[in-house]
Amino acid sequence: MAATAFSKRGFLARITHLAACFALFAASSALAQTPHWVGSWMASPCAPADAEPRRDQLSLNGDTVRQIVHLSIGGVAVRLHFSNTFGTAPLLIRSVRVAAAGKGSEIAGDGDKAATFSGKPEVSIAPGESVVSDAVNLPANADGNLAVSFFVPEKVTAPAVHYTALQTSWVAPGEQTSAAELKGAHKITVDLILTAVDVASRTSPGAIVALGSSTTDGAHSTPNANHRWTDFLAERLRTTDAANAPAVLNAGISGNRVLNDGRGAWGPIFGESALKRFHRDVLAQSGLKWIFVFEGGNDIRQAAGNPEVIQPQQLIKAFQLMAREAHARKLKLIVATITPSQGTNPKDETPAWEATRLEVNKWILTTKDIDGAVDFDKAAADPQRPARLLPAYDSGDHLHPNDAGYKAMGESIDLHLFQ
Q1: Confidence of residue 287 (pLDDT cuts 50, 70, 90)
Q2: CATH number of 203-418
Q3: Using CA atoms, how far apart are residues 400 and 396, in angstroms rounded to an integer?
Q4: Burial class of residue 46 (count of CB atoms within 10 Å of its CB; 0-12, 13-18, 19+)
Q5: Residue 159 pLDDT level (bands cut at 50, 70, 90)
Q6: Per-residue pLDDT tens digits for 288-318
Q7: In which band, very low, low, confident or very high, does the pLDDT at 235 lie, cut at 50, 70 and 90?
Q8: pTM for this one?
Q9: How far apart are CA 98 and CA 109, in angstroms?
Q10: Residue 320: pLDDT above 70?
């Protein structure tokens, strides 16, 4: 009888233990499926003075902006980031709405949803600051376009701008944010004030932020086609595992340099240096897990005698500094080799340009200071003339790839780097 009682107690103990294990497993599974914020799209802001070629698109005064953005991953909700990074006065926006984008300035799907800021329909952004909206209960699709509409009621001549958007957006007179199609709208090819879109994802492991210059920005790729190398990388990640794909955020600024901002030998150099904007444009992104750096060519291509001409070790130290910053936050830093550019500036080219590029690339491919390397140089170069782009990948200026070149670069990346 005692043995039977002991057996029952043991049986009950085992049942209790199993129940606890199942409860722990269920709790862990629920935690894994809890939505978390991951950046799905971004645009690095530049000072308006840097965007002189697009100055005609910058002035706003009682206008509705409908910004079209392309998401790398989807989610069950979204939130929006707006910036007055380089403004000199407060910037007021109101009546913010978000929807799936349709044709032209139209919205699609089941209509739009309002975005608020601490429950309010408008927000004033102080100079040098950014704001994030409340969560918007709008499911968003991976590889889809969102239309983010907002009204700027007061005159603004210097909004934060990303000038190489390669995406058509719209500005229309008056308050039309809830309109299915904007009336009297004109096209713009810049990103204004909106600098990031996060999605609430249950499965994405996080975001990859690509820090770079024009070849990351997608210069000379087909507008509205999403043919930057970052787009091809995002497509490969979604194809490999759609549910668990990392997001890919493009923090490229055409003309950007690692060490210096301001103006260089070839005219405007857009945006602050990569080192200066590293915290704002990279480390501050939601769900950041991996940093992918593809910079340095604009530092190297300076006329002989220019006081800003850099030596290989200067670029190497900058990459090492980024790696230390990343590792301090338990992030991984990947660096890509610098692609060839011979023939871009034939009057100013010196042998030192190529020598510096090759020395930096050798360090990238052999160092243990970073968490991975990608050989964009090998992917894009002409094997017969390795200092030049492969003709089939050359957009025509001997510096920027065409769509095929960007695809080759995106396909050269080992996806195991993001496991």
Answers
A1: very high
A2: 3.40.50.1110
A3: 8
A4: buried
A5: confident
A6: 999 999 999 999 998 766 767 789 999 999 9
A7: very high
A8: 0.90
A9: 11
A10: yes
Distance, in Å, from the CA atom of 53 to the CA atom of 157, rounded to the nearest integer, reads: 15
**Scanning the structure block, which residue is given the tokens 């007055």?**
84
What are the residue ranges spanned by the domains of the chain? 36-195, 203-418
Residue 111, phi-psi category: left (phi > 0), alpha (psi -120 to 50), beta (remainder): left
**For 218, how many CA atoms within 13 A lie in the half-sphere containing its CB?**
27
Instruction: State yes or no: pLDDT of 264 exceeds 60.
Output: no
Round to whole Å and give the CA distance between 373 and 369. 11
* 162-186 per-position pLDDT tens digit: 888 999 999 999 999 999 999 999 9
